[in-house]
Amino acid sequence: MHTAEKSPDVDVVVVGAGMSGLFAIKALRDRGLTAVVLEKAPKAGGTWYWNRYPGARCDIPSLEYSFGFDPELEQEWVWTEHFPPQPEIEAYLDHLAERYDLARDIRYSTGVTAMTFDEPSGTWLVETDTDDHIRARFCVMATGGLSAPYTPSWPGLDSFAGTVVQTSLWPEEGVDLEGKRIGIVGTGSSGVQAIPELAKLGSHLTVFQRTPTFTWPSRNRALTDEEQAAVKARYPQLREEQRNSFTATAGTTGAVILAFPTGERRILDSTPEEREAALAEHGFDACRIWSDTASNLEANEMAVELYREMIRRTVRDPETAEKLSPRGFPLGCKRPVLDNGYFETFNRDDVTLVALRDEPIVEFTPDGVRTSDRFIALDVLVLATGFDAMTGALTRIDLQGRDGRRLRDDWADGARAYLGIGIEGYPNLFHCVGPGSAGVLATYPPHIELQVGWIVDTVRDLVDRGVVAFEADRAAQDAWCDEVARLSAGTMYVAPTCVSWYNGGNIDGKARTFPLYLGGVPTYMERLRQVTAADYEGFRIT
Ligand code: NA7
What we know:
By secondary structure, the protein is of the alpha/beta class. The chain folds into two domains: 3-149 and 388-541, FAD/NAD(P)-binding domain (3-Layer(bba) Sandwich); 157-221 and 251-383, FAD/NAD(P)-binding domain. 31% of the residues lie in helices and 16% in strands. It is built from 17 helices and 20 strands. Strand 13 and strand 14 form a beta hairpin. Helix 15 packs parallel to helix 17 (521-533). The chain is globular. The two termini are 22 Å apart. 48% of the residues are buried. Bound molecules: ligand NA7. Residues 146, 152, 185-191, 210-211, 335, 356, 384-386, 501, 506 line the site of ligand NA7.
């Protein structure tokens, strides 16, 4: 095919119609660019479409977990709870699609299977599972950080005659759970949110736990009209606070996301009486009020002991309390979890905890599961087993860059990207809040407005200049990856005992790297502004 025949169908293909994709399509259109969004789900919403399991909820306050680009929308939209439940966020995103007529540029039920860069024409050919072939000058990967579900397997699972359902692929039509014997594997955020609800729905719930989790009472509550009005009255300031905050949050929300200590006193210098007083005053939060737990493993372990003490005080059966108690990895290594009565659920007579490290799964049978110690009959198996986070959604596409390079090979030893936006070897391709950016460490909507806003402005400029290829430079990418690594050195995220989806440790065989930028959102955005001012320093422009 001649280059002339490879003229693009659209300026931009956006992959994904979650929060990033919806914002991208609106912003691209506002700047006069043509775009098509390809979305594998039958609806918009991304994470908030797929994760519709009982109890699904965001752990960022609703008034902050929303876009600020349209002051009218911000004032009109009514949130009902402090932490938004999944149906409310889904409704909010549906509303965005409708309000700005975004659906006319979105092809639903269309999964991207392959993407190939053609160097002479400077275009991408995007192929889908519905046999679409779309040629675009630029691609914006709005594929999400937690969107490639991880599904483990056990011997005999295929023979299980009951229902198997994954929290991250929960069917729209729902799952019949009423009065069923339910088993759930996984006690991360999804499991911790689902467990209290599944216990209420089923006749019996068995929780299969591999690693005990750190989770804090969310203290979720209905939002009063007064509270909501007070925030809406100062929304411009709140958005400004978000833009200027390390984690794109206002108030104390950032401490929740990072599990960072909030106090000034060292736990290593504390007396038993002071620690007891902390437990009495702060409960589960007593482990998070010290200044030395983020950097000192001995202090961290003392804080964890306060946490274990709270579990002992909450869970009546001492053996169950012990099994639920985190040991052997530091507080702050994983993303903190917020719960609605998680530990209390284990006081119910119809809930059983199976600690898989003591009692591993041997096999599934048509009727249930056999562990090393017993047989447990099940009607429904829920998998809350997490995600191939941050990179999986990109590496599961057959993404072929310059000179036939494949992303899944280039990232086999860990993700490498410049500014968390561009990848050397993959010109004209941008990814949203991906590896190398603050990514999942910052509140998505404001972070998306800033970072995806930069991408869209850049694309507009490149189109105006008739640029054929825009590609991260190898040396600039290496320097950025070094900076990302330097900032995480010594933190709990990369502690040798920390196994998490942040560092790839949750997936067998995945490279162990921590790809999130820990310099904070304002520093990151300042860097992007400097890069633009220096004519896209670190990118090669053809
Ligand atoms: P997470 O936090 O990765 O949790 C997954 C859970 O599944 C975790 O408890 C895992 O245990 C468990 N798991 C995974 N594979 C297995 C196998 N093979 N056997 C037993 N248990 C297993 O995912 P979530 O969906 O809960 O949360 C992800 C993020 O979404 C969350 O942090 C919020 O930001 C929103 P492990 O700890 O690996 O031993």
